Amino acid sequence: MVRLYTDRVSIGYDEGLVIRDLSVKIPNRKITTIIGSNGCGKSTLLKAITRIISYRSGSIILDGKNILKEDTKMLARKMAVLPQTQECKGGLTVGELVSYGRFPYQKGFGRLTKKDYEAIDWALEVTGTKDFKLRNVDALSGGQRQRVWIAMALAQETEIIFLDEPTTYLDMAHQLEVLELLQRLNVEQGRTIVMVLHDLNQAARFADYIIALKEGKIVKTGNCEEVINHNVLREVFHIDAEIGRDPRTNKPICITYNLLKGQSKHEKNINTYSTGTCINF
């Protein structure tokens, strides 16, 4: 069953189009990752699907309805979004910020109920931010703030969660904690997770379905075996990648790669980039 899909959607800013006539289905109750080089339209697609920005043409359908015609609160009960850049007014405590995730369920004067407080405390607990509950958000480190924003998205208790680069600002251990948390939410609670990731090996490890974009168009969709391979990475990132196997998961991993020569004026004097197992684009 597919609850969410785009049908020939075109999205742009000012006079230009970033995405043109893109049709894609988001598998229900799976983890979907969107990959691609900077500026290819990953975040733009995510923003359009979550109605942060409008689209020019086509349609985005959720549960048989165009999202443009869906009531805002009803839509917010179905999908939560963690954008790439987060902003909040100064002076908020962590608990206050996470409580904003309960907005879609509030009525009347907007007072929090027992159920709201339980959802807030659960979100703080699973993201490891409960000890920060009374602290000012502005006083936290970048990594701590990122986890608090994720807690706010979780407090929304939606069936679909969108995250734009959720591991930004996090060290390796906390990146793994966040991704394993999202995986548990998917496996244990059946939540649909859609996220933009730059780390190809994290995408291969945690995603059930990967969407590879280039210049606003889909190059390849499928599981990690179908997408994380030499030919697709060559097309999407202009690299000659060496693909191996993760000894713990048996998933494909990008071990090292060379830049293909002659791709841009910035690469004329660059011959080779070699990396470890964390490949970011």
Can you lay out the helices and strands and say which pair or pack?
Elements: E1 4-13, E2 16-26, E3 31-35, H1 42-49, E4 57-62, E5 65-66, H2 72-78, E6 79-82, H3 94-99, H4 114-126, H5 142-155, E7 160-164, H6 172-189, E8 192-196, H7 200-206, E9 209-214, E10 217-222, H8 224-227, H9 230-237, E11 239-245, E12 252-259
Parallel strand pairs: 3-8, 3-9, 6-7, 7-8
Antiparallel strand pairs: 1-2, 1-4, 4-5, 9-10, 11-12
Helix pairs in contact: 4-5
State the low-pLDDT regions, or none: 265-278
The biggest beta sheet, please? 6 strands, mixed
Widest sheet, order of strands: 6-7-8-3-9-10
Helix-strand string: EEEHEEHEHHHEHEHEEHHEE
**Can you give the mean pLDDT?**
90
**How does the helix and strand content classify structurally?**
alpha/beta
Total number of β-strand segments? 12
DSSP helix count? 9
N-to-C terminal Cα separation, in Å? Answer: 31 Å
Q: Classify the beta-strand content into a percent band.
A: 25-35%
**Morphology:** globular
